[in-house]
What does this fold into?
Amino acid sequence: MNAIFEFLDKEPLENVITCLNFKIDKVIFFGYKEVIDVHKKNTEEFLKNVCGVSEVVFLHMSHDSLASCVDSMHKEIEYELGLGYDIYFDLTGGESAILVAFGMVAKDFKTPMHRFEISKNRLVELDKSSPLRISERVEQRFIHLTIEQFVKLRGVAISKKLHKDVKSIKDEEAAEDINKIWDVSRKYTEYWNPFSDILKRCMAGDGNLDVSVSGNTDGSECRCL
It folds into this structure.
C-alpha cells in the first residue's frame, strides 16, 4: 500500500496530478481550513471516482506556527507507517512555509519527495539516487481527462442547455479575442463565474453574434468599472 502527503492548493489540478500519473491508494492533504472548506468535496470525489484512490484525508494546518505544522506531520506519518503504508511527499504547489515543514519532516523519516511541472506533465524527483523514490516503487499510468471531468474538478459543470448553434469561429480577429478572454478566465478562475453571470444579465446577443448592453430586469444598474 502507498500514500502520498501533500499541501492542499487552491489550484485543483496541482492537488491531483500525482494520482493522474501513479496508482495511489491513499492521499493525505495538509491545508488551511478555508481552503479545505472550498476544495474538499470536489477533490475527494475526483480522486475516488476518476483516479481510484481508496481513501482521502484532510488535516487542518496552522497559519501561524511552523512547529505545529511539523508536529502534526510527524504524528500523521508515524500513524500511516504503522499501518504499513509506503510514504511519499508531493511538493507540487504549496506555500514556502509548508514546503519547509515537508523538508524538515522528510529528513527525519527519509521520505522520498517529488513535484510535477504541470505544463509539461513532467515528474521531478528530488532524490534521484534513492531506490525508494515513487517512480521505482509505484505503478505508473496516465489518466486522460475529459472536458467534463476537468471542469467538474474545478467545481463547475457543462450545461448542455446553454450550447449555441454557432460552433465555429472563422474570423481570425474574433478568434484572437476569444483566446484573450480564455487567458483572463484562467488567471481569475474564482471570479470568472460571477463575472460571467453579470455579463449574462446585462448583455444580449442576436443570431449574428452582435451584442447590445442593457440595464438589469430587476431594476439594478449594470456598470463597467
User: Anything to note?
Assistant: The longest helix spans residues 33-49. The beta strands are 2-7, 26-31, 55-60, 86-90, 113-117, 122-125, 203-205, 211-213. The radius of gyration is 22 Å.
